[in-house]
From TrEMBL, chains A, B:
<dbReference type="InterPro" id="IPR036390">
    <property type="entry name" value="WH_DNA-bd_sf"/>
</dbReference>
<keyword id="KW-0805">Transcription regulation</keyword>
<dbReference type="GO" id="GO:0003700">
    <property type="term" value="F:DNA-binding transcription factor activity"/>
</dbReference>
<keyword id="KW-0804">Transcription</keyword>
<dbReference type="InterPro" id="IPR051081">
    <property type="entry name" value="HTH_MetalResp_TranReg"/>
</dbReference>
<feature type="domain" description="HTH arsR-type">
    <location>
        <begin position="4"/>
        <end position="100"/>
    </location>
</feature>
<dbReference type="GO" id="GO:0003677">
    <property type="term" value="F:DNA binding"/>
</dbReference>
<dbReference type="InterPro" id="IPR011991">
    <property type="entry name" value="ArsR-like_HTH"/>
</dbReference>
<keyword id="KW-0238">DNA-binding</keyword>
<dbReference type="InterPro" id="IPR036388">
    <property type="entry name" value="WH-like_DNA-bd_sf"/>
</dbReference>
<dbReference type="InterPro" id="IPR001845">
    <property type="entry name" value="HTH_ArsR_DNA-bd_dom"/>
</dbReference>
<dbReference type="Pfam" id="PF01022">
    <property type="entry name" value="HTH_5"/>
</dbReference>
<protein>
    <submittedName>
        <fullName>Helix-turn-helix transcriptional regulator</fullName>
    </submittedName>
</protein>
Amino acid sequence: MASCDKSSKVDVRDLFNALGDNTRRTIMDLLAEHDEMTVKQLSEHFPDLVRSGISKHLMQLRKLNLVYSIKRGREQIYRINPEVVSNVLRPWVKKYEKYWDDTLIRLKQAAESSKRDHDE
Amino acid sequence: MASCDKSSKVDVRDLFNALGDNTRRTIMDLLAEHDEMTVKQLSEHFPDLVRSGISKHLMQLRKLNLVYSIKRGREQIYRINPEVVSNVLRPWVKKYEKYWDDTLIRLKQAAESSKRDHDE
DNA sequence: TCCATGCGTTACTAAACGGTAACCAATTAC
DNA sequence: GTAATTGGTTACCGTTTAGTAACGCATGGA
């Protein structure tokens, strides 16, 4: 629960502003891979950063509702807010899907045409 | 042709660094929508920016091989580099596809279970 | 030829941003 | 009880960066 229900406020601008930083994007990628992680676990993936740095990035991600957290003992468990990914990232990606479709089609056509005749 | 063949150098870091800026992401979105545009056409979508600003962003996008340009008369035609979108954006997106799949499944399950029993 | 148009490029400045250090509160282990 | 762990918060600093202004350079039309 918590701040997971304000996902309607997130726009594509916030999303990419967050993803524009390498550390934050890696945090998101790690959360996408492991489903849930503590700050400690996350910070172990960033040996060049002190933990407060990670915490600050998580603060931002939380404010933008890209992630949410629940408390368990003295640990804080972070998870990706799936609504945001589904409602913001997915529609944006749709605009670019034609490019990999086109690329596939083009590569296929090129492969086929080079099989038949390779005049050029 | 031109600088379209160096797409192997682009990584996800460069991509999101570029997309992190609102102007650059909008430029990419416009190019994705219109296939090809001149600098003039692009700058008409940014009434708050002078043309040199757009040009600077395009310079960046070109250096990162996210777009390429060809000259036609005194105009410069810009297009998205489809290889980059296909080779960099697509693999990254794959990590997050499960979220909208999960969301769909979860919404479907919720709808079904609330049909049967809605005991909070 | 002369002027307007379309772009690129270079300093420059003001603002934003990432990272650190230091401190705090809450929880767990001893 | 005390000490250690976990992580949030704030102030601060150095760097980056977006946008502008001003210039140059072609191309196209008169």
